[in-house]
Inverse folding.
């Protein structure tokens, strides 16, 4: 039984906060504001780059009237070096190879701007795995609105649906889209694992293909309970 599997990007497949933090801190330095440490910026990640900049500005006491301009500056900073410090989480490439070898269709649903997502996927040699990439600026809506996720699934085609992510935003998106959620527990979530609604939880990406295979087999055995 084949599946269509959508993945979040930051905090799920890649650890990108060091590059985001560098972009934010270059923006703050230009505004003559103190830099922020990595844990602080990690706590602000989620809901896309504009929200990250908004949270940084609120924390630093910057004028919110500058939000659009400082978001553009931060994005420009980020796009100059989006993968200088970014790394794949352990086992991600093996996981994606396994899914592809088993005929599953894969897509990306992220709040990162679509252009930045493509750039990062290309730089890390991940683009070949994904038939569809939807970013935070592809549609009018962004996660946790379910529209971007449902758009990914519509473009991937028929099959049992799964969404894989790491955060409260991802869990809410899957819930609102009424699709099973696989939670990567080593990403950027701020809440306990037990507080996030999920069907599967994993810490090692290499384990996820077997976990989804078992879920698919269970759905075949009990079709009334499948999604």
């Amino acid at each position: 039984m084949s599946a269509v599997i959508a993945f979040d990007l930051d905090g799920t497949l890649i650890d990108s906060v060091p590059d985001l933090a560098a972009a934010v801190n270059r923006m703050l330095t230009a505004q003559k504001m103190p830099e922020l440490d990595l844990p602080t910026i990690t706590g602000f990640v989620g809901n896309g780059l504009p929200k990250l900049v908004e949270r940084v500005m609120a924390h630093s006491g910057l004028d919110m009237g500058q939000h659009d301009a400082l978001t553009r500056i931060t994005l420009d900073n980020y796009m100059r070096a989006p993968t200088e410090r970014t790394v794949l989480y352990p086992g991600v490439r093996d996981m994606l190879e396994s899914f592809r070898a088993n005929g599953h269709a894969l897509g990306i649903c992220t709040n990162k701007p679509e252009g930045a997502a493509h750039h990062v996927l290309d730089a890390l040699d991940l683009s070949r795995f994904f038939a569809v990439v939807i970013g935070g600026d592809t549609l009018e809506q962004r996660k946790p609105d379910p529209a971007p996720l449902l758009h990914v699934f519509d473009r991937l085609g028929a099959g049992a649906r799964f969404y894989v992510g790491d955060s409260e935003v991802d869990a809410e998106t899957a819930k609102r889209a009424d699709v099973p959620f696989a939670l990567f527990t080593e990403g950027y979530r701020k809440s306990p694992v037990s507080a996030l609604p999920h069907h599967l939880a994993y810490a090692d990406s290499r384990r996820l293909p077997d976990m989804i295979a078992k879920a698919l087999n269970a759905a075949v055995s009990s079709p009334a309970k499948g999604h």
User: Anything to note?
Assistant: Residues 115 and 190 are 27 Å apart (CA to CA).
